[in-house]
Amino acid sequence: MDLMLKGRRALVTGSSSGIGEAIARLLVEEGASVVVHGRNLERAERVAGEIGAAGVAIGELSEDGVAQAVHDQALAALSGSVEILINNAGGNSEGNTAKAPAEIPVADFMSNYKANTLGAVQLCQLCVPDMVAANFGRIVNVSSAVAMQPNYMGTDYSAAKAALNNFTLSLAGSLRGVNVCVNVLTPGVILVDGLVRFGRMKFGDDSLTAEQVNDRLAAEAVFEVPPAGRFGMPRELAMVAAMLASPANGFITGANYRVDGGQTRGLN
């Protein structure tokens, strides 16, 4: 199937590894001109070189003024406006995953909000005017299953992702009559590089492939296993992102696409 992405200009934040890298790689394979974003120049340039990206944009999006700098770098690398924006950058304060909501410092709520919500909001605000003027744009904001089904720990992260979901729906609703589609992509547990490394260390075997790690983590119920019987692979998430980013998608907007193996079943 031709996703009609050839020649389209895309910025994928947080794409120097993991889910973002998988999305950037697939968009390039489909013919898009892609800017790889990350916080580490060497790592971003390595990925950009491997996949044949148009260039890189570097910056910590949780910091004031950085979204504008990243946007400017993307425009320079693409020699034009951003037509496809994938907001994947973010992260979790891992030290808070074992803390109850009332125990998490307020500063950590603000830090997670800046990292997981405000950076995406600012990039949307920077990119949307050009999308509206061109009567074409696709925005995919990568959220998390915990935004809809919080586990009562790590609430600073889940609350920030819930805010991102809310913003996405509001933005989509505001863009009436223009060919700009805005959607949320919600992963469950995805076997990114860090989780593969964890599995290899846990099972004491550095030769295990990602698929073998997936099988063993599921078989031994190291994490709660979704109805699919395994965890997701980055490429599977990238396939849905590419579909939502495609010009072929002109009618899906304000939607939440769950790629979680059924983890958040029954929830919108």
Entry keywords:
SDR, Rossmann fold, Short-chain dehydrogenase, alpha/beta, 268 residues, 7-stranded parallel sheet, NAD(P)-bd_dom_sf, 13% strand
Please, could you describe this protein's structure?
Helix 4 (106-134) links the parallel strand 4 (84-87) and strand 5 (137-142). This protein folds into 2 domains: 9-189 and 233-259, Rossmann fold; 191-231, no CATH class. The longest helix is centred in the middle third of the chain and has 29 residues, at 106-134. The chain has 8 helices and 7 strands; from the N terminus they run βαβαβαβαβαβαααβ. The chain has a 7-stranded parallel beta sheet with strand order 3-2-1-4-5-6-7, with helices on both faces. By secondary structure, it is of the alpha/beta class. The two termini are 28 Å apart. Helix 1 packs across helix 8 and helix 3 packs parallel to helix 4 (106-134). The radius of gyration is 18 Å and the shape is globular. It comes from Novosphingobium malaysiense. This is Short-chain dehydrogenase. Belongs to the short-chain dehydrogenases/reductases (SDR) family. One of its GO terms (biological process) is monocarboxylic acid metabolic process.
